[in-house]
Amino acid sequence: MTGDAHTPDRRLPSHPFDPDDDKLREECGVYGVFGAPDAASFVALGLHALQHRGQEAAGVAAHEGEPNGFNIVRRLGHVRDSFTTAEVIKALPGRLALGHVRYSTAGAKGATAIRDVQPLYAEFAQGGFAIAHNGNIVNADALRAELIERGSIFQSSSDTECIVHLMARSIQRSAAERMKDALRRVEGAYSIIAMTRSKMIGVRDPLGVRPLVLGRAGDAWILSSESCALDIVGAEFVRDVAPGEMVIISDDGVESQFPFQPSKPRFCVFEYVYFSRPDSVIGGLSVYETRRRIGVELAREAPVEADLICPVPDSGTPAAIGYSQESGVPYAMGIIRNQYVGRTFIEPSEQIRNMGVRLKLNVNRAVVAGKRVVLVDDSVVRGTTSRKIKEMVLDAGAAEVHLRIASPPTTWPCFYGVDTPDKEKLLAATMSEEEMRDHLGVDSLRFVSLDGLYRACGVAEGRDDRAPQFCDACFSGDYPVAPSDRIAQGRLKLAAE
Amino acid sequence: MTGDAHTPDRRLPSHPFDPDDDKLREECGVYGVFGAPDAASFVALGLHALQHRGQEAAGVAAHEGEPNGFNIVRRLGHVRDSFTTAEVIKALPGRLALGHVRYSTAGAKGATAIRDVQPLYAEFAQGGFAIAHNGNIVNADALRAELIERGSIFQSSSDTECIVHLMARSIQRSAAERMKDALRRVEGAYSIIAMTRSKMIGVRDPLGVRPLVLGRAGDAWILSSESCALDIVGAEFVRDVAPGEMVIISDDGVESQFPFQPSKPRFCVFEYVYFSRPDSVIGGLSVYETRRRIGVELAREAPVEADLICPVPDSGTPAAIGYSQESGVPYAMGIIRNQYVGRTFIEPSEQIRNMGVRLKLNVNRAVVAGKRVVLVDDSVVRGTTSRKIKEMVLDAGAAEVHLRIASPPTTWPCFYGVDTPDKEKLLAATMSEEEMRDHLGVDSLRFVSLDGLYRACGVAEGRDDRAPQFCDACFSGDYPVAPSDRIAQGRLKLAAE
Amino acid sequence: MTGDAHTPDRRLPSHPFDPDDDKLREECGVYGVFGAPDAASFVALGLHALQHRGQEAAGVAAHEGEPNGFNIVRRLGHVRDSFTTAEVIKALPGRLALGHVRYSTAGAKGATAIRDVQPLYAEFAQGGFAIAHNGNIVNADALRAELIERGSIFQSSSDTECIVHLMARSIQRSAAERMKDALRRVEGAYSIIAMTRSKMIGVRDPLGVRPLVLGRAGDAWILSSESCALDIVGAEFVRDVAPGEMVIISDDGVESQFPFQPSKPRFCVFEYVYFSRPDSVIGGLSVYETRRRIGVELAREAPVEADLICPVPDSGTPAAIGYSQESGVPYAMGIIRNQYVGRTFIEPSEQIRNMGVRLKLNVNRAVVAGKRVVLVDDSVVRGTTSRKIKEMVLDAGAAEVHLRIASPPTTWPCFYGVDTPDKEKLLAATMSEEEMRDHLGVDSLRFVSLDGLYRACGVAEGRDDRAPQFCDACFSGDYPVAPSDRIAQGRLKLAAE
Amino acid sequence: MTGDAHTPDRRLPSHPFDPDDDKLREECGVYGVFGAPDAASFVALGLHALQHRGQEAAGVAAHEGEPNGFNIVRRLGHVRDSFTTAEVIKALPGRLALGHVRYSTAGAKGATAIRDVQPLYAEFAQGGFAIAHNGNIVNADALRAELIERGSIFQSSSDTECIVHLMARSIQRSAAERMKDALRRVEGAYSIIAMTRSKMIGVRDPLGVRPLVLGRAGDAWILSSESCALDIVGAEFVRDVAPGEMVIISDDGVESQFPFQPSKPRFCVFEYVYFSRPDSVIGGLSVYETRRRIGVELAREAPVEADLICPVPDSGTPAAIGYSQESGVPYAMGIIRNQYVGRTFIEPSEQIRNMGVRLKLNVNRAVVAGKRVVLVDDSVVRGTTSRKIKEMVLDAGAAEVHLRIASPPTTWPCFYGVDTPDKEKLLAATMSEEEMRDHLGVDSLRFVSLDGLYRACGVAEGRDDRAPQFCDACFSGDYPVAPSDRIAQGRLKLAAE
């Protein structure tokens, strides 16, 4: 309906073959620091460690005490480009700070408007308030329409702004109580960090779909999407914030509340498959080790005669190591990733394009030539990447190419804060495993089973179909929270129907 | 209380002697175009012609029809730097557009936050709405506190946002009716241009303190702060919008309404003295000719034996011409202004500073040496410039320096959209004419009388003290609208008290 | 032949009607400071005052003592944008500095390559050497071909680089002696400032075509193209450097030498007409006063019945004042110049263009309507501006428009450091005065005579045709130095032939 | 002596612990394309693939045919940031283009001046000439002094400029013959690509110290430092350019000449150890496979009881794989590299620093805790990184840390185009293996032997000490070309002495 083009960018054509385009994308990471001098410099480091959760934009809010109060800087682009100067950190003084990295789910697609970059800020009668959110509110459209009708003026297209307007209209006095009022109206997945001038609040939705951890660095408390962002500042991991828990951090310490109806947790299993960093520990499990174990399960379920196990870098690496270890077939770097990444590059001329430009990945020709190669990747979304990589490996002279996928077939979109193509664009939603094998042109194709995935995640007995231990809707269509806006728009027909 | 530092700039030290620092500053200009293809390119040109009314920032909103609706670009800096590329105009398609140049009165002082740059935009239940405002709302603080208490979330520190929130809560359906509801709660001076997807609205406050004119360019209608911005696009001047009038422009033409209680008009007399451009015509008077006539009045009231009449460029030029013509003393360019202006320059070393750097003005030494010189300037605010210029002219060898001011002594601050120093900083508020003469170190000093000024403005009988024909509060302390926020804060004691 | 596009700029379409495009352009200004701490900050100020002599680029070289030696910064754009930060001045420490502003004559036309921006720098066996040049070498092509043949490698397309290579091959040891060797091979016009680590050298060609003055600021010596750039730093004017003089400034003071065959001086008369700033004094004459006197001569030679004398701002202003004073017809600002200049602006749509956009100049409609107007301008080059302005004044309702030009008809190109159109583009080279009047569509057109111009320049008896006191080749075709490259290329047929 | 600060950057403090700082650095890569439309876009892609050979700056020269000839763009920073827009490629039209990425060896250290960025360009009497160079000229200082004495003016501090000035003074007519004249005066290591308007020349020094390969893409010929940069554009590998060979590419095809005295080749063995990309094939050997075999040799020479083999990413990875395969100890990603690299980051506060910030590397705590870990790295230079990583691994709870290095101890600086610390900064030059083990604080430390390295490079019988097959001066002090400038300066005492 509207767009506030503060910085109307010339859009560069992205390259036709970018292997990273064919992934599900986590769209946010959040990070908060309470009680450290120059809290914003901690936050900048933490966001850098969470950069894989959102590369389009980043923002930091800090409170410098009265009378100046809150300062907020929001920028498009990477943390290393936007938040690395002394100037920007000097513009964000104070002991309390929180930040956000963002891809883009709800909100204007395509060109991220700077106004949609979080943290959001609002001034209530009781004082200022900043908030950052990882997840997605599935009834945001309905809430927005209701609020506008009553005179609220929205400044962004972010679903998070609903929470702020609901809080503004609450008759409670404290920010924490106003937030509870607001969240009781909200459906969906969320891990939120918020702050007033004297308190920092962390909260996870009742199912705990998205991660949130608590850390400690000297006297300071830290909230972070993942534990790897505690390591970067040398902080100590304390514990996961529990599903449905609200922690309220003040100079008196950390207070824990459980404001919602208790539910059985349903943590997102795809965080283990791809989203989280391998050096994070979530829900007591090492992400790296879990991925390696998926490779082990895969080798057991789908062995193959071959000469080499090669990961599709970097996401397939831990599972490939596991597969190699379980199968005894040697592991090799058959595909090399250019470390000087860069998504935008000149559109190549027809001539170059036809020759097949390889900006990010190159096959290690001398390694794969004449070999029977097993490629291990984390997932197949549209299949465009897999097909292209297979061609590159064959062009380099491989004798056979077998594809092993460290997750079950992705057949359903996610509505809980992940950017997924529509169902009809998901390869596995439209083809059987055999059809996919033929479509991709590989000698064999196998996915790990849902039970195998659960076993790698530490559930020895596999998935409990009546009460699944994780959210695996992208594989099963079993949505733990009904995506009500989508259903209202007639844009989704659920599996059950 | 808070600041949203989207672009925290390193502030450069401005030069210690900038003659333009010692001026009252008009803080805004507005411009709207209805019914031209590429309306935004007209608006960019119009804002360039209104640049003297605000140099800190500019913004343009345009409506490109459904489904994309409104686009807005706001930038710090000059129009010629921000709105001159094909890219920015391409980002603002459509037949309706409005724009704003801004100095800064209400809102965060100093570093203009981009969020305070107008036009403001809001989405109401009935559709989008953009607004730009020249003037100042004197009860904005009280309105803001009331609105926040009721759950409105403010995004800027601009007083204009009060109007938007009042409109959002109106139960009227059309934007024009909502605006009337809102403006009836508002006290102060305003010339506003607003637009919906199909209408453009122009309105002046009941006293008509700030200017607003209507023009025509082919089939298109134009609203502008001044007529010089009609000339730049080759448009035709139609008429002034009347004090208290609301014009509603649609594809059906221009509708005129008078929604307020009728009042006797009180147009700002300082627009004639300094703010407006000399090639504008306001209220039927040529600004240039009015200034020349002030010089004529001044020559009659305050003659002096001299060799040369020299303007302080550029604002003193028309009055100096008039003074020369009436007195018969030759006119000469005794002071030269560097056309390559630039406010920011390196802080000179102690050595250079002591020698007296002259970035903007230079005395034409060969012209003034040995002469009795009459300097004509438009006004004296703090007196810092006058004193410095006098020294420069004496250093260059002038025999005598007489100062003639083309306005009465400035003794009161303005609350209607002009940036004025506090009363105690105004030289004329603290000294008699003789004291000022001694303080400035000139051989004689004279101001035009208030009656002389009124005569130059076409009121042959001079000021009617019981019902003054203009707003002249800065000279008289006679405020036509009580500045209620200031009084509530105890920060102003009125003349009458 | 080649271009080193360090910064290949997107060229913005300049506006179709820019009155400043129809001028001859001085192409350089030079400024040097010997013996001041932070000499570069003086130079930045001096170049700002000389900005009218070249707006495309600026450069500053400074020597900070051993071991670091010379630092040089060269930038495209205005001094106020490029040399105003503490950072850039900090990058240029030292007591000796020199600078240059440039338009572009010799060297790549159009997009100024940064490598053509002066000062040039070279390392000789005896040490480093920086040089900046105002003027033009007319045998540069021949010298360049000879030097390349002998193994010199040119880095720029600047004619000044010939001097540097000639110096590199000199067998003299001191920079001053090498420079004399080089300049004896050079033909043309030049005012040069050069420096070694311990000396600053200023030199004017034997005819003294371009200006160069010597000033004093405390203990420091200053060399500058014009005296107005001494005023800006509060320095004292000492004297003109004489035609054919070389001054060598060291810690021992100023040494004067005359290395060339003596000639009768031929200072460029167009410096008085247009190039120099009105507040400069050159050759003992005030530029402002000279221009005013041209107006007086013009009023005597070409009077007319009229109501108003209006300058074409800003260059016609002093002559218009003189004309008004001599004729007794009132002076008025009939045309207003927008002080927020900016050459680049969006290409207006067809619709706007047809209405006649007025970015820089606007007619003061209320002043000229119904009046017989005399427009006074400094010169006519192509005539495009004069024609356009005449139309604007008539559109605004003037009864008659008379044009008076404060210089003789411009009929020949300049080869001494001024950017002139080819002869066939010069209006006066192809038409008689009557034809020009008809072409421009004015009621009358008159130029000041060559003798009148000489009288205004203080030569009471007018021009001595056998030994003219000035270089007036652009009016007379009488070239004091034969432009040998041009003749060799067959691109010029001299008047005498 | 001098610096031409075109873009004087504020230098950001780099982070105190950057593992990439403790590496030898290859300083250049070169790439040329003959006979493809838009050759510059190929070159941009090729340079992106060679980015690991130089990250400070890049340049591209292209010839667009007469009359415009050569265009050159040189920029600081990464290829992906500087050469990815359509605009920059449009500024470089033509069928011939060559490019260069640069770290910095000879030339101004620290802030790379843009004038030192290659390709260099010169205009000879016979036409334009561009050149790019990987390597280092060891008698450049002597040559430069001689050339300046004879009147050559140097524009850069690059050693490559000596070649250009020697060519300018050659009496030969063709560029290839001039180049032979010049190279016969030059001592050192070089792989050069040069071009005239119609020819492209590639040449390797007689010992072939630096790599250079020839490829084919359709009708176009390509010269590249490494074969991985052929793959990126889909080009075919043809062959290595031979040591001492000059290839001259024209529309008639590729002509091969051997202008130098024949020598036994001495290719740089460190290209296999670290400099080249693992997916390149040089001298018939796969770089990846060679590194893996070094790991195998290392496992044989220096086995250890352990639980895990962990690479120091990314340079230690192939050797770690080989070590694991030979030893049977499982391979694991015990250290994770943040893919969002960024060398510059805010200087952390004292508090954060003390906690140990980990911008680039993080230990995978869950993987190494309680384990006996073998870390495999490619080399030890100063040892700062190894020490820091060992601490991180122990902090994460490892039981033992053993360090295995996939190259012999680095004890001598390189003078052939590699940035090496002075000898006394090289850890292995000052300590025995035991002392190093204690200094680094590891449980054991072992380097591969020189013979082991040669075996991995395919020399089954190991190094031939009388006629070594590679240049291994950094390990042996056996310099195949005497570094004459260094010896003249008394800054190097050779091993033999």
From TrEMBL, chains A, B, C, D:
Binds 1 Mg(2+) ion per subunit. GO terms for molecular function: 4 iron, 4 sulfur cluster binding; amidophosphoribosyltransferase activity; magnesium ion binding. Mg(2+) binds at S315, D377, D378. It catalyses: 5-phospho-beta-D-ribosylamine + L-glutamate + diphosphate = 5-phospho-alpha-D-ribose 1-diphosphate + L-glutamine + H2O. It holds the Pfam family GATase_7. Keywords: 4Fe-4S, Glutamine amidotransferase, Glycosyltransferase, Iron, Iron-sulfur, Magnesium, Metal-binding, Purine biosynthesis, Transferase. [4Fe-4S] cluster binds at C268, C414, C471, C474. Its cofactor is Mg(2+); [4Fe-4S] cluster. Pathway: Purine metabolism; IMP biosynthesis via de novo pathway; N(1)-(5-phospho-D-ribosyl)glycinamide from 5-phospho-alpha-D-ribose 1-diphosphate: step 1/2. Its EC number is 2.4.2.14. HAMAP family: PurF. This is Amidophosphoribosyltransferase. The lineage of its organism: Bacteria, Pseudomonadati, Pseudomonadota, Alphaproteobacteria, Rhodobacterales.
